Structures are given as C-alpha cells and as structure tokens.
Amino acid sequence: MVDKLFASPDAALAGLLFDGMTIMSGGFGLSGNPENLIPAIKANGVKDLTVISNNCGAEGFGLWLLLANGQIRKMISSYVGENKLFEALYLQGKLELELNPQGTLAERIRAGGAGIPAFYTATGVGTVVAEGKPVETFEGRDYIRETWLRADLAIIKAWKADPAGNLLFRKTARNFNPVMATAATHTIAEVEEIVPLGALDPDHIHTPGIYVHRVIQGAHYKKLIEKRTTRPRPEIV
C-alpha cells in the first residue's frame, strides 16, 4: 500500500504546477473549498491558469486569491454573481469566462472522470448556451451536445481520509469534490482529519483512494457563512 500523506500543501503540490495548466477546484459557495491548497498555489506564482469551479470564491477567500493575484486567465464556472472583482475583470476583457448551467457543469466533470467525451442535454436549448454546439433530436425533443471536462490537477476538500487516500465528505462539502477527484491527471485532497488505515467503513467511503494521489491534513478552516440573515426574537408574553 502506497502512503499518500504529505506534510504540507507545498510538498503535495511539488512537481505538479506549471504555467497554462488546467485546475479543478472543489467547493460550492463557501463550502468545501480547498482552503489550504489555494494559498499555496498563489505563493507558487504559477500563472495563465484555466480554473474549473462552481464559482470563483468571495472577497479575500478561496479562488478569489488567485484571481486578485492575476494568475487566472479563464474560468469555467456555473455561478459568478456577487464577486465584484470577477465582474470587473471580465468586463475589462482581462478574464475569459465559459459559463455553464450548474447541472451541465457537474455532468461535464463527471463525464470526464467516466471517460465519456460527449453527452446530450436539453438544458440550454434555444439559449446562448447552445450557440455553436451540435443539436440532435431524440424522441421529438432537441438536445445540445456538451463535451467532457478534464484537468491537469484537481484540488479538493474532504472531511476524513486514510493513508491510502480513501475519502469521506461531510454534508454540503460533498458537492463538486467527488466528481472532480475522478477527472484529473493528479488529485490532491486536503482533509480535516486523517484516520488509520482500516478505520473507514468501506460502505461509507465516498471517493476511493484509487482516484486520489496525495493527501494533506488542512488547518484553520473558517466555516464561513456566505449570507447571514437573522430575524428579531419574538417577545415572550
């Protein structure tokens, strides 16, 4: 059994980063982001990146750090709202964007991991999403052809891992992370807890270690709330 544990984000990223590469980064809003690996990529200075992720972080957090540092050339995403820096760079022509319906983005990544180069979906038919894409009719309904997504590197965040790289995710953090783990040449997982080999029930493992090449134990997770809403407490009579 190969021990896949690395001592730090820098050690785990060693030899894998290069200019012009494509990186998949897990997360959904502020949940499930690889919070330790992203700053290490920023510190490395690698540039001209294509990044595949649901969104591009929030001010001061997540992929926003790479965006603010001028390292991202293109984003392939499904949600880009509420990120003023993203908006400004895109409108200034300094950032390329390939916008996807969210389910289509997830399926393109899953297809990349499953070795399926293309598939058809009704989502986006008759809209700008369909521009330039082949359209086929199945059982009287039009579908557009979408292609898989693959990456040189996937950086993901899980709850627990063992030394073989088997992963468990917790709640909403089980979003884009599992499919991204399957769709990259190399996958690095940062986790909240590392447990001994054999401690994870095989029936509970979400991502088998065969998809994971390197593992680090992360630290200082912020557990941020994207939008905090409150209401007044009712008076007790």
Folded structure, characterized:
It is a single chain. Helices cover 19% and strands 26% of the residues. With 237 residues, it is an alpha/beta fold. It is built from six helices and eleven strands. It has one domain: Glutaconate Coenzyme A-transferase (3-Layer(aba) Sandwich). The longest helix has 13 residues. The mean pLDDT is 94.
Would you state the CATH class? Answer: Alpha Beta
Strand residue content? 25-35%
CATH superfamily: Glutaconate Coenzyme A-transferase
> What's the number of extended β-strand segments?
11
**Residue-averaged pLDDT, rounded?**
94
What is the alpha-carbon Rg in Å? 19 Å
Order of helices and strands: HEHEHEHEHEEEEEHEE
Main beta sheet: strand number and arrangement? Answer: 8 strands, mixed
Quick one: overall form? globular
Descriptive tags:
26% strand; Glutaconate Coenzyme A-transferase; 6 helices; 237 residues; globular; 11 strands; eight-stranded mixed β-sheet; alpha/beta; single chain
Please give a quick description of this structure.
Helices cover 19% and strands 26% of the residues.
List the helices and strands and how they pair.
Layout: H1 9-13, E1 22-25, H2 37-44, E2 49-52, H3 64-68, E3 72-77, H4 84-91, E4 96-99, H5 102-114, E5 118-121, E6 135-138, E7 141-147, E8 151-161, E9 167-168, H6 177-182, E10 184-194, E11 214-217
Parallel strand pairs: 1-2, 1-8, 2-3, 3-4, 8-10, 10-11
Antiparallel strand pairs: 5-7, 6-7, 8-9
